[in-house]
Amino acid sequence: xxxxxxxxxxxxxxxxxxxxxxxxxxxxxxxxxxxxxxxxxxxxxxxxxxxxxxxxxxxxxxxxxxxxxxxxxxxxxxxxxxxxxxxxxxxxxxxxxxxxxxxxxxxxxxxxxxxxxxxxxxxxxxxxxxxxxxxxxxxxxxxxxxxxxxxxxxxxxxxxxxxxxxxxxxxxxxxxxxxxxxxxxxxxxxxxxxxxxxxxxxxxxxxxxxxxxxxxxxxxxxxxxxxxxxxxxxxxxxxxxxxxxxxxxxxxxxxxxxxxxxxxxxxxxxxxxxxxxxxxxxxxxxxxxxxxxxxxxxxxxxxxxxxxxxxxxxxxxxxxxxxxxxxxxxxxxxxxxxxxxxxxxxxxxxxxxxxxxxxxxxxxxxxxxxxxxxxxxxxxxxxxxxxxxxxxxxxxxxxxxxxxxxxxxxxxxxxxxxxxxxxxxxxxxxxxxxxxxxxxxxxx
Amino acid sequence: xxxxxxxxxxxxxxxxxxxxxxxxxxxxxxxxxxxxxxxxxxxxxxxxxxxxxxxxxxxxxxxxxxxxxxxxxxxxxxxxxxxxxxxxxxxxxxxxxxxxxxxxxxxxxxxxxxxxxxxxxxxxxxxxxxxxxxxxxxxxxxxxxxxxxxxxxxxxxxxxxx
Lengths: 444, 162
Description:
The structure holds two protein chains of two kinds. Chain A is α/β, with parallel strands linked by helices. Chain A folds into four domains: 12-133, NusB-like (N-utilizing Substance Protein B Homolog, Chain A, Orthogonal Bundle); 144-173; 180-235, Sun protein, domain 3 (Alpha-Beta Plaits, 2-Layer Sandwich); 239-442, 3-Layer(aba) Sandwich (Rossmann fold), CATH 3.40.50. Chain A has 18 helices and twelve strands. Chain A has helices at 12-20, 27-37, 43-58, 60-70, 80-95, 101-114, 121-133, 144-147, 152-162, 164-173, 190-199, 226-229, 238-247, 264-272, 285-298, 342-345, 348-368, 388-397; strands at residues 180-184, 203-206, 213-217, 233-235, 254-257, 277-282, 303-307, 321-327, 369-379, 400-402, 422-425, 435-442. In chain A, the strands form two sheets. In chain A, strands 5, 6, 7, 8, 9, 10, 11 and 12 form an eight-stranded mixed β-sheet that branches. In chain A, β5, α14 (264-272) and β6 (277-282) form a beta-alpha-beta unit. Chain B has a single domain (12-161), classed as Alpha-Beta Complex (Peptide Deformylase). In chain B, β4 (87-93) and β5 (96-105) form a beta hairpin.
């Protein structure tokens, strides 16, 4: 007999069940915690476990709809193990072509038995066999919420704000696997770096619309990648890199990143603004230590880290900075593809309270900027309340003016609004995550 | 010791019934040594004598992990005396290169056999070892896992490239 993956001693589906049932934590944290506790799991098993967890989570609404179509028992009345085993089974049946239907059904049945619910294994078996035999097309024409497994209020909000066609592109992109995007550090030859990565077995191809950006595929691990460890590139999405890109067109000696974690933008600014000094603040010490590691790896010396709550006004920082980078906490609806459980966690009320939080932080930011200095405001979301309306209100209440950014952006991102000082980028429409960015200047 | 050629699916000999070993000759000892070497060389967890072209009821199994000491089990004239439970998982075979299929096997088996000194032994096995025992004993009766696989066999190579 030949050694194969699933014949090893970890039951991948059981691992996925454990992770999915780990309660009120973000899925990526639950996955990391599980692998930390079970370090012996090999790479392929890990990939399968992760694919199951992410897939079941991002398709959960669609899966539940399919299950409820075949069950006389309401989903809310099902035991959690039974419901999750069904979701796992249906996901494999409908979305994993490599898993034979018999295995998808049998493994879920076994999971339920193994968890002491042998009496319900017949129920699970019956439903999964019915799902397997049916050709439920997971298309659900016309119902965006079901089709893209996104809460109705989000789908409605997208349609209302951007129209049906755009909304569909955005929702569809939110189910795609986002690429691993790298920012190549200044002075590093992109072609040579791509070749070096290729020699390590990874595929790297440059982003044709923006200099210094590469997409990396099948890299085995960052922790063993020489070019990464030597600080020749770092991981950062295209949209997030636009902040540093715009900053590089501004002359600024003193820079504050008011909510810096995970630090990508602050480090980017520190690297592109020659002769500048960047103060990076964040409320979390743990996150600051990650920025510190990255700064060391990238060899950034013109950056200082400080634990500070952005909602609290700091007298000493008043009128002190040429540029304040304000990449603020937001609803994250532009990065649903990277955080697959986010869409179920955000509520319409959160958007209001996040907008209020952003307003508070912007108030402070406004007072930190020198006369003639800039605020570079950004979020990774697509709601108007947090973005264009936030900026409009800010400009109304402060002696700031918007600064055109069409000359400070790569051509592909120069939307019409760039001339008015901001762009709203949309996942699936623009070649990056959903992102908002605006540049404002304090009047003298 | 020598590495022997592994017969592949399509070879008549893999469909034939093997005969009991009645006495421990030098040839049988040599066969066992060669089978162990052949199995380890091919990265297998089990090998049955018909797979190297010998119709004798001899199998070798080693389910130790890559980081562990080898722990081979040599079984002469093995017979399963009890089995229970179910496990469904992927199985591959050195005689069916590049393929893998899903097979449901007992999750527990008990078997009697003679060790390489012809001493009677009994073993209780679960999980991978239980699967390997079932798989290898099938070879002695001319059966391959492909007859039992649920759904189609899959290519291991395309799976690795993902």
